[in-house]
Write the structure tokens for this entry.
Amino acid sequence: MLKGSIASISLSSVKKGPIASISSGCVKWRLGFVLILAIAFSGCTTTQTKTQNEQMETRVTGLEKNLQAKDAEIVDLQYQVKDLSSKIDTSKPAEPDQVSQASTAQAGPVKLPEVSDNSQIIRVKVSPEKIQRTLKSAGVYTGPVDGKIGPGTKAAIIEFQKSHGLKADGVLGKKTWEELKTYLK
């Protein structure tokens, strides 16, 4: 349809003389201008779509990072809750099953001291559960990972200290933790 109009314009310019050819040139120029504008605007729309997609991807990435940070915060809070509950639970005497499991796990004759609270045993900022998991990884603790520092956990600390040439006092201080944390999984 467009070709037919251009053909009719050029035929009309031949019939009508020089004035008609000037106006047909103007029409051709206008058609060319409209065509250029149409191409330019169609390019802008794809650019806008790409920009919107990039913005959405950036936002999704940011939200994913925020989600990971919140997940890590939740895990930290769970450790804090377990730590606080274990401090409350340590004032209660250990259950007979836990003591018997801990005493059967010992390789040699280790004197089991009485444990009254975690601050006497743990002198680093690490949750009791993490300590128990790490002692299990080191192969010296077979009791449950329950966050309760009892005689079994203390015996495992002493056994670990002996096997690594540390002072075997059953206290998890900086030196013992530095050596023990190499077993973290």
Summary: The chain has seven helices and no strands. Residues 121 and 171 are 4 Å apart (CA to CA). The domain at 94-183 is CATH 1.10.101.10 (Muramoyl-pentapeptide Carboxypeptidase; domain 1).
